[in-house]
């Protein structure tokens, strides 16, 4: 754990990072759009080896067609002084939709997005990392 005065930072174990990804429904895909960084909202679903996401953003769909490396980030809070962030990075591709729908079922927000015309994208889990920050600033 690193101590930084106003906060303490802790690296999350890989298993906890996967739990955070599994619990999340909404995330951001991090991508370069016309040479500018962008963080675009997506619905996600974690499988054994991939992070599935739904997007109607052409830049994200084209990145998956090309097999680009994409990153997805989820954030949250535990209590009023602990925040956490998890990032998954990997090669994106367009999976077989029928196979993926069998994994998703019909109750997920991701499946609903697909029903409304979003494209399904899979990211292989090459790197998963995360951190927790405990804020120690004084109240007052």
How would you describe what is shown here?
The chain is α+β, with helices and mostly antiparallel strands and 140 residues long. 27% of the residues are buried. The model has no long low-confidence stretch (mean pLDDT 88).
The gist of it:
With 140 residues, the protein is of the alpha+beta class. The protein has one domain: Pnp Oxidase, Chain A, CATH 2.30.110. It is built from 4 helices and 9 strands.
**Helix and strand sequence:** EEHEEEHEEHHEE
In CATH, what is the homologous superfamily?
Electron Transport, Fmn-binding Protein, Chain A
The helicity comes to 10-25%
Structural class: alpha+beta
The name of the CATH topology is Pnp Oxidase, Chain A
Biggest β-sheet description: 6 strands, antiparallel, barrel
Continuous helix count: 4
Whole-Å distance between the termini?
26 Å
- Which stretches of 5+ consecutive residues score pLDDT under 50? none
Radius of gyration: 16 Å
User: Can you list the strand order of the major beta sheet?
Assistant: 3-4-5-8-7-6
| CATH architecture descriptor name | Roll
β content, as a range? over 45%
Q: How confident is the prediction overall: mean pLDDT?
A: 88
- Give the count of structural domains: 1
């Amino acid at each position: 754990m690193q101590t930084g005065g106003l906060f303490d930072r802790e690296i999350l174990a890989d298993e906890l990072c996967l739990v955070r990804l599994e619990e999340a429904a909404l995330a951001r895909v991090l991508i370069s759009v016309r040479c500018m960084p962008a963080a675009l909202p997506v619905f996600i679903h974690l499988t054994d080896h991939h992070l599935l996401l739904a997007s109607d953003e052409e830049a994200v769909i084209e990145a998956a067609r090309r097999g680009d490396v994409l990153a997805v980030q989820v954030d949250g809070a535990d209590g009023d002084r602990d925040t956490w962030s998890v990032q998954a990075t990997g090669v994106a591709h367009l999976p077989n939709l029928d196979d993926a729908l069998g994994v998703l079922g019909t109750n997920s927000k991701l499946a609903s997005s697909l029903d409304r015309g979003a494209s399904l994208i899979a990211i292989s889990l090459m790197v998963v990392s995360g951190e927790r920050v405990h804020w120690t600033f004084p109240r007052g």
